[in-house]
Amino acid sequence: MKMLVLPLLITLLQSPLCLSVTVSSSKPKVEVHEHTDAVLACEFRTEKDQNPRIEWKKKGKGVTFVYFNHKFTGSYAGRAKMEGATLTIHSVTQKDSGEYRCEVTAGEDHVNLGEATVTLNVLVPPHVPSCEVPSSVFVGSGLELHCKDKLSVPPATYRWYKDNKALTATADTPYSVDPNKGALKFTSVSKTDSGMYRCESSNSVGAPKSCVAQKLKVIEYPLNMTILIAGAAGFLSLVLFCCICVCVCQRRGCCKKDKKTKSTKSFNPPPPPPPPIRNIKHYKPAHSFMI
User: Where does the signal sequence lie (predicted)?
Assistant: First the structure.
């Protein structure tokens, strides 16, 4: 038995192995900060071909070439390099985020194409957010302040400040805060809500950024405005009262007499018959004259 096993092992070791090109990545997910270098690792092994063709492509709405025919294309020219099949992109921006594919073609191998995918996520620190704060608002009005930072990755969370003091919503406060949407909402403002408001955006990448504080003034309604509102309310009340009175009258039949009179006036009786025709008497002259 041993004499049969030994020749078989020698035969297997001496026979060529039927291998194909294999491609892999030691780091399929890469996260780097903006304006730093991103290294997209790609390792390969071929069966026979010692000089395979290497290509890098980026997936998006379509597929674009990054490295093709031994040179970089588009925006990657002049800011990227190749070491073996590993791609390094210098000073990346948010536009470089996406899914990349390393393709190795070995024409002399039994299976001549292999590929590996690497996902690049470029992290962006907070930017100065845009803050929407009105200059004035009337007492008792509802109010909502907005804050937004569209550039930070991952998305920023927000905090509002009044007179440089952070606002924290509780059951007793007249406002509510949405830290994910950047909204500060008042159901009914009062004079004490006047002050300097600013918003701060933050994420895990960099230092928080804040917009310039803006002044909010809560004012009373002017006297002429109060008179106008009171007059309008009184007019509406009078119109409503008249409508109610008309409805009550119609239900109680106050308008029946008018309807009867109107129907009588609208009735046209037939004309009277003509008077009888009397007999007309013919009179002869009393004397006849002979000519």
Answer: 1-20
